[in-house]
Amino acid sequence: MEKGLISVDRWAEGSEAYFLSHLHSDHTHGLTSSWSHAPLFCSPLTAKLLPFKFPGFDLSLLRILHPGTSHTLTLTSSVLHVTAIDACHCPGSIMLLFRGDFGCVLYTGDFRWEATCQRATNARHVLRNALQNVPLVDVVYLDNTYSSPIYDFPPRHVAAQKVIDIISSHPDHEVIIGINTLGKEDLLIEISRALQIKIWVWPERLRTMHLLGFHDIFTTDTSLTRVRAVPQYSFSIGTLESLNRMCPTIGILPSGLPWIKKSLQKNEFLSGSFLTSRYKRGKWSANSEAEIDDQIRNIGSPEKIDKYMYTVPYSDHSNYEEIEEFLKLVQPTRIKGIVASSSCYIEPMYYFGRLCRVDQQTQKLHEEQRRKESCKREIEAVSSETSFGGDNVQTGRDRSKASKGKFSGVRLRRFSRLRRTHRGAKIQGDNCSDQE
Q1: pLDDT tens digit sequence for 209-246
Q2: How many angstroms separate the CA atoms of 188 and 82, rounded?
Q3: I want to staple 426 with a disulfide (CB 3.0 to 4.6 A). Which of 7, 162, 171, 203 is the partner?
Q4: Measured between alpha carbons, how far is 226 from 218 in angstroms, rounded to an integer?
């Protein structure tokens, strides 16, 4: 039985090579300091940060993939061509374009490609060039975190200015910003530069900042600044209430997630969240400061979800419109979401299958939806016939739930198969067992 070929963000043994898109914990689940299955390929910055997250890791296993360049790997059973592309998500994050006997597969990892981001523009150019000699992309493994039209938020530089405005409007307050252990460095740097202040971070985060090359902006001395970036897990309304007993304090949560407010109404196609009405969608521009000021004013006031807490739509994941533009560029045959189980999961083929070269799965989804609607109409008809005293007696109920998925895989062209579980993807030989 032929063993697996490669695994991406998936760390069970059985593959010849392993690839890491970035160091967020949902992509490193199963990777440990003692892990030693095979060579591990990642970006230079991820390789620099990985020993800090996994002390004692065997560094001889690391192989560097430079973003913007293509690499040829000779494995036991195949020659693999891989192009690393800047994902603009967090430090070191990359997309991976694979070509081999199995066809062509693009794994996005987590990514944010804004129209106004120069790094994203450069990354699009790299991807476009890499695809020139590719007949088609068989599968895109997509960051589907916000793959529904209800997710609509502005570019990060606009959201960052809103954070700065909140801080500036509270000159006598301590400010707490909830962040993860990696990511949103650009936001903190913009705050520091705009307000000419240092940013407090906890000791482990300071070490990460130093590894990233930021030596003068961040501090662990609370007496030097009133702005503190704290781990998101310690960020809560209860914490803010306790802090306000000692001194005036506000909290800011920079995230795309809180901006999910408006639900679909009957016969309504939702093209954005409640934030959408506050700016003209698709018109973000970085051409002039005046235009940026207009964009910021159009957002309106940041949402205040508590007496002491604000949320600002600063997201390191692409919104619906950005995902749509990305898929128009790639035009894959199939799409698979890499977020397989979450409260906001939605099957990406439902909305984006129309952008695929082959959209049979989308057709199946629409046919299934039509069958459900037809069944619902029949139930409603029966319900209206069994009314009593002017009140309808319902004979059916809505059993639909938010989709939570996990997919077992799809056979690729030629001899191989691409498989994806909750985290990561695995390309295997045709005779491999279907067991994970």
Answers
A1: 999 999 999 999 999 999 999 999 888 899 999 999 99
A2: 33
A3: 7
A4: 12
Q: How far is CA 134 from the centre of its chain?
A: 26
pLDDT confidence of residue 186:
96
Query: How open is the CA angle 122-125-126, to the nearest 5 degrees?
Result: 90
Give me the chain's average pLDDT, please: 79
Token pair of 291, please?
Answer: 């235009």
Residue at token pair 């961040």: 218
Q: Are strands 79-86 and 199-200 parallel, antiparallel or unpaired?
A: unpaired
* pLDDT top residue among 111 and 300: 111
Q: Identify whether the C-beta of residue 404 lies closer than 8 Å to the C-beta of residue 95.
A: no
pLDDT at residue 423 greater than cutoff 60: no
The answer to whether 336 touches 139, Cβ cutoff 8 Å, is yes
C-beta of residue 152 within 8 angstroms of C-beta of residue 319: yes
Sheet with strand 103-107: strands edge to edge: 70-74, 79-86, 94-100, 103-107, 139-142, 334-337
With the C-alpha atoms ordered 8, 86, 93, 155, is the resulting torsion angle positive or negative? negative
**What letters, b where the CB count within 10 A reaches 16 and e where it falls short, cover 228-259?**
bbbebeebeeebbeebbeeeebbbbbbbbbbb
Q: Give the separation between CA 372 and CA 349, rounded to whole angstroms.
A: 18
Contact at 8 Å (CB) between 137 and 106? Answer: yes
d(Cα 75, Cα 84) in Å, to the nearest integer?
Answer: 18
Q: Which residue has the higher pLDDT, 146 or 290?
A: 146
Q: What value does the mean pLDDT take over residues 78-104?
A: 96
Alpha helices in 9-88 (DSSP H): 25-28, 44-53
> Strand, coil or helix: what is 334?
strand
**Does 362 have pLDDT greater than 60?**
no
- Indicate the range of 8-17, 48-57, 175-184, 269-278 predicted with least confidence: 269-278
pLDDT at 150: 84
Q: How far apart are CA 323 and CA 378, in angstroms?
A: 36
